[in-house]
Amino acid sequence: MENYDIDFSHVDIDNDTELVTSFKDSEEFIKIRTQRILSQSMDTYDAKRTFQSSVFTSDSTNSNELTVDYINQLATGINSTLDNVLRANEIILKSLNTSALFGLAYSILYSNINTNYRLVFNNPYKIEASDEELESIKNLIEGFNHDIDLEELIRDAISGTYVEGNYNLSLSLNKGQVPQIRHYPLAICYPSYYMYGNDRVLEFNINDLKNRIKKTYPKNKKNKAIYYDNIEKEIKDTYPDEVYSGYKSNDKTIRLDPKFNKCLTINSFGRRFGVSPFFKALKSSIVLDNIIKADISYSKSRAKIIIFQKLSDKLLGKDGKNRALAEQALAHTSAASALQTSSCLYTAPAYVENLSYVTPKNDNSDSVDLMKQYTTQLLNALGISFLDVESATGTSVTVSFTGLLRIVNSIANSLAKIISRFYQEILEFYGYNRGLAPTLRIETSEELDLQTRMELAKLIYSTFNGSAQTAFEYIGLDVDDEVAKRKTENDNGVYDVLLPRQTSYTVSDNSNEVGRPSENQTLDDGKQDYDKDYNKNARSK
Fold first, then answer.
1. Residue 204: is it exposed, middle or buried by C-beta count within 10 angstroms (0-12/13-18/19+)?
2. How far is CA 329 from CA 52, 55, 355, in A?
3. Which residues pair with 390 in a beta bridge?
4. Which of 234 and 529 is assigned the larger pLDDT?
5. Start-to-end Cα distance in the chain
6. DSSP structure class, residue 462
7. pLDDT beyond 90 at 85
8. What are phi and psi of 168, to 5 degrees?
9. If you write DSSP's letter for every residue of 498-521 in order, what string do you get?
10. 61: pLDDT confidence band, cut at 50, 70 and 90?
11. What pLDDT, in 10s, does the model give residues 263-278?
């Protein structure tokens, strides 16, 4: 066998036999060796291995749950369709928990609800009543307000009406029990098509109620129910009498007594159901969500490391029909193997022209402008606006939520009317003339500001010569409590103990002389004598 000074390959046949294959010239060896390298590279080449080569797929910016078309679908007949109202409220509730802008609007709403109220006993029917009877009525109503925690009811009813567009109130009066006002979910207690005076008659879905409260009641170690033994007991104790009667009669739907069951609505336009003001802001919210999703996809693409390896076009041949897959696989696997180590020496094949990083351009100014535009639209729909105030040093922005507070005040007025009618039913239930019922006045949100309350108190007491009780109530003080404290202070001589000390503002250099200087001889109008007599009399008291 001739010994060429080149590499050769051999295969063991058995212990005594070995097959050796050699090449006559180095060019033939290099050609076969190259083909073997390329073949091995093709065998190990995997274009789907993401750590070598990957294609970034952007996230979808279309929401499967909420689209503009779906909002338009819900808006069609929403004032007359309970299902549309319930679905819209589910979306709104989700937005309150996930959207910073919706959460901001709700925080402003909730924190600016004024729960202060006053009872006005105006007796519009001029009904004769003794002082004892009027005092008993006053104690009855004030006790009722305390028992139902009227301040918290005001806050819950106004915020609930704003969020869901509808808020039912059910007055429960039973002998031997404390009067209560309850609220039920809109899905089971909702306005009907029929009117009672100016109020909608409420319907109650008993079938839906059964499905909602059908459950296993918890029991203690003695196998006694912690709350209720069964569904029937729970319905009897916690729902109106009409509901219990309908449950016993196996009715599907019943109507509630309109005298004891009323509903707050907003944006009802004289139709059956109200709609939350939040609903108007959902379209802008969808666009904002899509912009945010697109921005997230954009940030992901910028965080992605893309390495581009460019090969020479000479590999395609003169007619461009050569695919050069073997050369591509070799260059790819070689570069990928080198990049897997922290520090490497990579010698590219001769047909590799360039190896570089690819980074996207940083240009998202359009999305920023769009977010500003739709954010402003969303907040305007919720009654929140921004006022630009120019000054010598620059421009400042003032947030105004006057529109939102006006809606809050309108809901408060409607709630006050409902509670006032409940007062009439309470008086009649306890044997009093319903015409003697007081009228509830809920203060506006603007009156919640302390400075405003102080100015109102001064206006009422000083300008209009109003009562001290009304002025005190505006600043949150109880007049009876203040009278009792003042009597105690007078009896204990607190005024004499806390008498203001004499200072340079109240006395002259001569401590015996108070008032105008006596050495001023030009004042001959009798005022100096008046000062002496006044101070003498004032200090003797």
1. buried
2. 11, 17, 15
3. 395
4. 234
5. 143
6. I
7. yes
8. -90, 150
9. TPPPP-TTTS-SSTT--SS-TT-T
10. very low
11. 999 999 999 999 999 9
The answer to whether the beta carbons of residues 117 and 415 sit under 8 Å apart is no
- What's this model's pTM, rounded to 2 decimal places? 0.66
- Which of 62, 91, 98 lies closest to 74 in space, CA to CA? 91
Rounded Cα gap, residues 539 and 536, in angstroms: 5
Residue 155 scores a pLDDT above 90? yes
pLDDT in tens, 175-232: 778 899 999 999 999 999 999 988 999 999 999 999 888 777 888 888 888 888 888 9
Question: Cα dist. 19→9, 36, 128, 303 in Å?
Answer: 9, 19, 131, 55
Of the listed ranges 19-33, 73-87, 272-286, 340-354, the least confidently predicted one is 19-33
Helix (H) or strand (E) holding 85: helix 82-98
Nearest Cα to Cα of residue 90 among 263, 279, 264: 279
Alpha helices in 304-443 (DSSP H): 325-339, 365-381, 402-429
Query: Do residues 153 and 147 lie in contact, with contact meaning Cβ atoms separated by under 8 Å?
Result: no
The tokens describing 254, both together, are 């019943």
Residue 342: helix, strand or coil by DSSP? Answer: coil
CA distance readout (Å), 444 to 94, 117, 399, 406, 418: 29, 9, 19, 9, 17
> Token pair of 412, please?
């408060």
- Tokens coding 428: 């009649």
H helical segments located in 382-478: 402-429, 450-458, 468-474
